[in-house]
Amino acid sequence: MSRILIVEDETRIASFIAKGLRAAGFESEQAGSGTQAIVQLANGSFDLVILDLGLPQMDGFDVLEKIRSGGDEIPVIILTARTSVEDTVHGLSSGAQDYMSKPFRVEELIARVKLRLKSSDDAAGAASIAGAEREPSERLEHLGVVLEVPTRQASVEGEPVELSAREFALAEVLLTHPRQVLSRDQLLAMVWDSAAETSSNLVDVYIRYLRNKLGSQRIVTVRGAGYRLATGEELAREQ
């Protein structure tokens, strides 16, 4: 049975979530502060974290950073009253697998918990296969952009470029499909493994970040369809 850590300082909300998880067949524990959550994660065995952001003692973003900096890949669903695009992007780019806003329906939360747990299991299996098949020198190149996949290093025309983990993942997907138009839904699924709303501009935000770092002319918007990498001819015309 999967065990969920609920990090929420409002007891009523935490109890409501715990009741819904119990009805769905999950075990759960509650942490009322960020520091308490870190202690429980260190001392217990959990399969997923439901994380509020407005916590006493330690902000939810700090908790997430602490989890990821220690190398823990446990799935994290942020559940918060903060609904801005900036907070959503920050949460997802910092390593959360999902971002839900309050007020929320417990049925939707349970569905997302099940999805993240399944994705985590699938990713673990895929990682073991990929680890056996991938050459350590794997490298992706397209018109001056180079990604060194094992070391997560990027360069443009020989100059190193600093990419966040999510930016690198997005660039990797684009370079793996250099002649294909990828829709926003496809990119959400491939980069974020996300069930996010199709109206979300998360993909557009990260495309803009990537254009700023790789060159705006290298990523083409195909109106009504999605994004693809520029061809050599298109790149030459822009230069």
UniProtKB/TrEMBL annotation:
Lineage, broadest ranks: Bacteria, Bacillati, Actinomycetota, Actinomycetes, Micrococcales
Entry-linked SUPFAM superfamilies: CheY-like (SSF52172)
Sites bearing 4-aspartylphosphate, chain numbering: 52
GO molecular-function term, one example from the UniProt record: DNA binding
Identification of the protein by name: DNA-binding response OmpR family regulator
Domain of life per record: Bacteria
Keywords for the protein's UniProt record, in alphabetical order: DNA-binding, Phosphoprotein
Domain Response regulatory: 3-117
Domain OmpR/PhoB-type: 137-231
Entry-linked Gene3D superfamilies: 3.40.50.2300, Winged helix-like DNA-binding domain superfamily/Winged helix DNA-binding domain (1.10.10.10)
Keyword DNA-binding: yes
PROSITE patterns, A to Z: OMPR_PHOB, RESPONSE_REGULATORY
Species per Swiss-Prot/TrEMBL record: Nesterenkonia lacusekhoensis
DNA-binding region ranges: 137-231
